[in-house]
Amino acid sequence: MKNFAIAALAAASGVLATPTPTEELVARASSSSLTAITVKGNAFFQGENRFYIRGVDYQPGGSSDLADPIADEAGCTRDIAEFKKLGINTVRVYTVDNTASHDACMAALSAAGIYLVLDVNTPLYSLNRATPAPSYNAVYLQNIFATIDAFANYTNTLAFFSGNEVINDDTTTSAAPYVKAVTRDMRQYIGSRGYRQVPVGYSAADVDSNRLEMAEYMNCGSDDERSDFFAFNDYSWCDPSSFQLSGWDQKVKNFTGYGLPLFLSEYGCNTNTRKFEEVAALYNTEMTSVYSGGLVYEYSQESSNYGLVTISGSSVTERPDFSALQSAFKATANPTGDGGFNSTGGASGCPVKSANWNVSSDALPAIPSAAAAYMKKGAGSGPGLSGKGSQNSGGTSTGTATAGSGSVSAVATGSSSSGTSSKSAAPLTVQPLNKAPMIIGFIVVGFSFLGATLL
After folding, report:
1. SS3 state of residue 310
2. Where is this region: Disordered (predicted)?
3. H helices of 136-175, where?
C-alpha cells in the first residue's frame, strides 16, 4: 500500500490430526454462504471452477485516518453498491480492529458475491524490516492470531496476507526468514485451531533484483514452511503500454512453472491517464497459466492520488478512473476452462545468497515459546487498534526451528476464542457406536430368511 508500510504475516496449515471416535468435534459457524476458495496447483478454485481475483484495494482514510472499514456497517453498505457496479469479486483490506464485530459487513459482502483478502498486521503490530528479530515476538503473534480468530470462520475470507512489502530493497532481504516464520506460524495456528485451510501468503514489493528470489523463498523448504500463494505489487504497466513494453511478458516467463497461485496485490500505474489496458492482458490466456488476477490500487481517493472514487461522509463521487476500470472489466471475460493452470504445483528450490539476497541459510527462527502455547489454548482477545504495540515487547525467538516443527500435531476441540457471533458454535460429541439396533436387525433378517425357506 502506497505510503502505508505495514509488515504482516499469516498462515494456514494443511495437516490436520484425525479425532478419535470419542473426541469432541466442533461445528465451526459461518456467517456467509459463498463457497470457500481453495488452492489447487498454482491456481485458486471456487468449487470445481477456476477463480480469478478481480478486485480493488480498500482502506478509506488510508494511513492518515486509520480505521476498520469492515467494522463500519454504513460505510460498507455505501461502498458495496459501488463494488457491484464495478463488477468485482474481491477487496483487499490492510488494517482491521480485531476486537470489533465484522458480521454485518462480511455478510453484505457475501451477499454481493465479494471475498476478502486481509492483511493481518497493523502499524503498531508488525515486523520491523530494519531489526526484525526483536519484533518477531509473542505479543506480535498474539495480535495476528486474534485477527485470524476474528475472520477465519467467514467463508468469504479468501486469504490472509502475512506481510506487505517488508522487503523493499536488497538491504532488507535479511528480514525474509522472519516473514516466512510468521507465515509458517499463522498456517500452524489455523490448522491447530481447527479452522478450514484459509490460504496464507505474502504481498511483496516489485523489486526487480529480488522479486523472483522472494517468490522462490516463500515456496521452498518443508511443506509446513511453504506459503499457500505469492503476490506482489506491480506498477510497471503505465498506459499507454503493452504486454511486451511493460515487461509483463518477461515476468510471465520468469514465473512459468512456479508451484503456487500468483496474483497482483496492487496494480494500476497513475503516471499517465489510467485506462487499465492491463486488464485485458491479466485475464488473457497469455497470463492465466501463471497469474490468478489482481487488485487495483485503490478504491478511495487519498493523498497518493490513486482513487477510483471520492468519499465525503455518506456520499460517493465516481472519478474518471472508476469508469475506465468498469469499462475494462466489462470488456474482459475470464478464459473458458481452467486457464491453463499447473495442476501439480510443487516446491521451489531455495535461492542462494548473493549480492541482492542476504539470506545464507534455509533455517527459520523457532516460534517464541509463549506464542507456541496459543496453538492449543487460543490467542484470546486482541488489542484492536489502540494497543501499546509489539515491536520491542520481548518474548522473542530463542533458537532455530527444525524442519517440520510448524506442522499441526493436534487440533483443538473447542472454539478458538470468544468474540463475534461467527466464532461460537455448539460442540457435537461423536458417541460410541450403539450395536443393539444392528443386532436386532440381523435377527429380523435371519428370521425372515428362515420363514421364506419354509414356504
Report:
1. strand
2. 382-426
3. 138-151
* Residue-wise pLDDT tens digits, 246-298: 999 999 999 999 999 999 999 999 999 999 999 999 999 999 999 999 999 99
* CB-based contacts of 243, cutoff 8 Å, min separation 6: 249, 281, 286
Confirm whether 132 is domain-assigned.
yes
If pLDDT is split at 50, 70 and 90, which confidence band does 414 have? low
Beta strands across the sheet bearing 37-40: 37-40, 43-46, 49-51
Backbone angles phi, psi at 221, to 5 degrees: 95, -165
Catalytic hit among 165, 216, 225, 278: 165
Most distant pair of Cα atoms in the chain: their distance: 94
167 and 202 Cβ atoms separated by less than 8 Å: no
Q: How many residues does the chain have?
A: 455
The pTM of this model reads 0.85
Contact at 8 Å (CB) between 232 and 205?
A: yes
CA distance 242 to 141: 42
- With beta carbons less than 8 A apart as the criterion, state whether 86 and 329 touch: yes
Tens-digit pLDDT profile for residues 204-241: 999 999 999 999 999 999 999 999 999 999 999 999 99
Specify which residues 295 forms β-bridges with: 55
Torsion angle defined by CA atoms of residues 320, 205, 37 and 96, in that order, rounded to the nearest 10 degrees: -80
**Counted domains in the chain:** 1
Calculate ∠ Cα 38-42-48, nearest 5°: 40
Measured CA to CA in angstroms, residue 146 lies from 165, 335, 447 at distances of: 22, 38, 60
* Catalytic one of 213, 216, 266, 278: 266
User: pLDDT digit string (tens) for 419-455?
Assistant: 333 333 333 233 333 444 444 444 433 434 333 443 3
Residue 298 is among the residues annotated as catalytic for this protein: no
- What whole-number distance in Å separates Cα of residue 56 and Cα of residue 133? 33
End-to-end alpha carbon distance in the chain: 83
In 3D space, the residue among 280, 278, 279 whose CA is nearest the CA of residue 237 turns out to be 278
- Tell whether 366 is covered by a domain: yes
Range of the domain at 162: 24-386
> Nine-digit cell at 376?
492449543
The 10 Å Cβ neighbour count of residue 431 is 8
Check pLDDT > 50 for residue 351.
yes
Whether residue 293 contacts residue 87, with contact meaning beta carbons closer than 8 Å, is answered with no
CB contact set of 407 (below 8 Å; sequence gap of 6+) = 13, 15, 188, 223, 224
- On whether residue 425 sits in a domain, the answer given is no
CATH number at residue 274: 3.20.20.80
Cα–Cα distance between 47 and 43 in angstroms, integer? Answer: 12
Does 165 participate in catalysis according to the annotation?
yes
